[in-house]
Write a structure and sequence with these properties.
Elements lengths: L3 E4 L2 E4 L4 E7 L8 E7 L6 E7 L4 E3 L7 E6 L4 E6 L8 E11 L2 E6 L3 E6 L1
Parallel strand pairs: 2-11
Antiparallel strand pairs: 1-3, 3-8, 4-5, 4-9, 5-6, 7-8, 9-10, 9-11
């Protein structure tokens, strides 16, 4: 059973920074990929940033140049550094991990952490 625990959310003014953390219960190098998603009220959950097992990254256009995904393998933790935050970044941010098995790829989700950016 994979468990993901996010932390680091909070209230910040526009232009500010936050760093989200996602601690996994297992070796993150065993996952096919990990990533951050967000869901604002009344909107669908969307990809923010992702990282493959070999370290390739992908970002939503809306966060390119402002957000950075990284990982600390010994600590089984991934991070999302968020700079130059905007009010439209307000959402619940979720950590996701994909684990492959003989039955296919299964996604695991954290419980989410609230990020609120005031104008």
């Amino acid at each position: 059973q994979v468990q993901l625990v996010e932390s680091g959310g909070g209230l910040v003014q526009a232009g500010g920074t936050l760093r989200l953390s996602c601690a996994a219960s297992g070796n993150i190098f065993s996952f096919d990929g990990m990533g951050w998603y967000r869901q604002a009220p009344g909107k669908q959950r969307e990809l923010v940033a992702s990282m493959t097992r070999v370290g390739s990254t992908n970002y939503a256009d809306s966060v390119k140049g402002r957000f950075t995904i990284s990982r600390d393998i010994p600590k089984n933790t991934i991070y999302l550094q968020m700079n130059s935050l905007k009010p439209e970044d307000t959402a619940v941010y979720f950590c996701k991990a994909d684990l492959a098995s003989g039955f296919g790829v299964r996604p695991y989700w954290g419980q989410g952490t609230q990020v609120t950016v005031s104008s």
